[in-house]
Amino acid sequence: MYIEIDEWVRKRNLRISITKGIIKEKWDIERIFSESELKNVFLFKAHDLAFLAKDFFNESDGKYTLLNKEKIYIKKILHSNKIAEPLLKDADERFVSELGAIINDNCNDYFNLVYERYKESLSEIIQVLHWGHLPIFNKYLLHNRGINPEEDTLNFYNHFDCLQSMLDEIEGKGQVMQIKSDATLGIELTFEVYTRRWGYPDRYRIIRTIDGWKCCHIAINGKCEKSGEGALLDNLNHDCIFFPKDAVMYALENLWESADEGEIDLSELQERLQQVADWISHVEKSVVEKQPDWVNYY
Fold this sequence. Notes:
The protein has twelve helices and seven strands.
């Protein structure tokens, strides 16, 4: 199964996204924001609006104002960004000149040997780089580091992968926030799977939701986890379908995550979902085809 990402990771990236949106739009931090601005400027996904917006904003009649604690935090980020901005071009050039080739060659082992040589120099410019760029980080990188880069900046960057992320940011290849994944939410998809019980493919209707799936079928309807645990697997079990449970759960969670990260569109989501169903159908058929006649279990 996928790693359960700590909530602070998403909140950290959302906070940086809010800050970058305020900088880009030249907005005052006391401004009243609309839900549309949370989505289209701060890049809050539907899940963020449902579960995390309350940790950043007071909301009344669709109007949002930053919580006082967030104003204080974001003001500090804005102040650090303002100080770093005029120094950023030179810091970028120094970083690329001194470490760019080593990082781009993915010389992780060699990097550890030469890092001490550049450690003092790096400590001088990493604050400028971080506060000047305000990078969004891959959620697994943040989770695995277990360090909030705004609270312990030098320690956070004492790692090859974090410096690789900074180089990507400088070269315009850094992580970005996105809301295009919301286009795959709430749309009915089909999941046709063969059952020995009925002797023909049975059609389930599947909908991706902000926290899993919804399965609609004659027998059992309801919510599922990202892994399909719940109504979908209950339907398969109800019809005595033989399938590799752990592998199918992994596949469905993988598929949900790919859609949520915006890596696939609705068409590919449907295609991959049916591929999982076809896989289950193949296993369901094979369990009978290869069974010795005298066993007669399936």
